[in-house]
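User: Here's a chain of 444 residues. Predict its fold as tokens.
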Amino acid sequence: MVPRFVPAIAAVLCCSLPFATGAADEGCTIHVPGDHATIQEALDAAVDGCTILVAPGTYAGSLNRNLDFQGKEVLLRGTGGAAATVIDCQLAGRGFEFRNAETSAAVVEGFTVTNGFTLAFPPGENKGAGVLCVNGSSPTIRDCVLVRNEGYEGAGMHCDGGAAHIINTRFEENGLVYQAFRGGGLDCINTTAVAVTNCEFIANNACCAAMGGGIALTRSTAAITGCRFDRNRSEGGGGIACMDGSSATVADCFFSGNSADNMGGAGIGCYGGSNAMVSGCVFIDGFCFEGGAVMCAESTVAIRGSTLARNGRTPAPISAVHVSSRFGPAHATIARTVITFNFGAVACDFGATADVSCSDVFGNEGGDWVGCIAGQVGQDGNFAADPRFCDLEQRDLRLAEESPCLPGHHPQGANCELIGALGLGCGTTPVREATWGAIKESYR
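Assistant: Prediction complete.
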């Protein structure tokens, strides 16, 4: 049931005349449920420049789902934030739909969207159970939570065209029950310059021949910055999947416990002529059959200033980075990166190649400077030494003060600056046995 409240005095003073005629004035403030009982009624009344303030509560029913901005530049804000302002779709539709080329001035802020369900919709409409963006729409989604929504493509959010801005938003357990075909959290197709900033992708699911547990990009370009990917699952690209010529810039992100069951890339998977620029990222405890951290198939990947630890699976020594040219050329460039204590380091097949510089590759079960990176140790600033993490068991991959990866500590005196994603974090660490058996004891 939609809660009812007494209209706020400020709203009456600002917008009393327009509401008397059934319309809203430019620059006005509209209150829900004070001025309108439902969110859609408020959106219908608003014009460009309006702010709609929604009081805390749970909003359900036909006029509180499938919410349509109708192309308007409106700020829709939950005044109590996402924890207190919930849109419950009741498994009868989606939360929001943007179909009219909305710009970034169409803003959704401070809502939880849950129980979106589009699997019963006809083909072409059975996607974007939390949020749908089509026809070039580029809204801003800010400070929201999209949780436990079920859709065929983009259980949490689907974008076809446009350049949505998604900020400080959590995607959690989307596609968990019915398993999205693509993009358990976020699915982007034919999009340009989608920006995903300071978001969390937690336990989203895209399995059964599906791609992109957290984010799926198809013929799309995205900038993904400062995000966390934890326990997402898919057949390929557990955290992020880049497909069919997509391009992703992934900076300062943390990947932990993601899995890819078949096509590899527990953290990031690139396939079919795509490319990814990865910088300042941490990959830990990724689980899959190929590329425990990063899979590069018929694509190019550049990994810079990152840390890859305890990725892969047992008993096979699956590499942290896998580069495959089985169906087309593939190449990885790795610089200023720590690749350590994984089940394998870097592997290439079908003539794929990898160039490594200023990197520490050490303590990996299947060998360190072997395979396609054999012979590169001792050249271009490359070495093999314990990086001296502050606490690997607790996933604290900052560096102790004696780490050879800190600036000025390079064992060969090379000027490589910081190697890895994280800098100094603690004093001297206890000396421990640097064998694979010892590392296995801390693996989880």
